[in-house]
Amino acid sequence: LTRGAGDTVLRGLSLDVAAGECIGIIGRSGVGKSSIAALLSQQINADSGTIKLNDQAIDAIPEANLYQRLAYLTQQTDLFSSSIAGNLRIAKRDATSEQIWQALQAVALDEFVAGCEQGLDTWIGESGTELSAGQARRLALARMLLRDPDLVILDEPFAGLDDDTAAHIADHLTAWRRGRTTILLGHDREALPDADRWFTLRNGRLALD
Known about the structure:
alpha/beta; six-stranded mixed beta sheet; two-stranded antiparallel sheet; 7 helices
């Protein structure tokens, strides 16, 4: 994969991931971890080779169908000028209040929301400006937990969170992603949930860690 000013980011990368398996990929900034996520989510195309999901070429899957089967938490926290409930129901339009509160509890945000005068109807501002960075990240994680995807991509999922909060969310993530194929991306293992296998990305290639 060549990006930017012609730099080769990934070289001959090949990896088989079993259904329901969790893979962790670690590496320094700029080494190509987010490029892997972008390839898997069809945001960019590889120069050569094929990416398959359940033996079907990913670029042959209609975009709407792919995004129903895929949950991708990027490094950037994207929220909308809406209420807390409005941001969560983007993931599941028919989510009940009980399901929303369960998702909020899973990310340790339920007490904060319960303490807001408007509760679930609390307006979070343009791009979530009324929330702290950590609260915004947790709201994005809660939104993902309302999804029911086959493939999950988590890029630095606990960025900006303290250790206790990250550990709390990791426990819920472990249960939620059971049976789902999961790709974890980060700088080191300590900042990520547990994985079945770990790889280091270096010089465009993956090595078993």
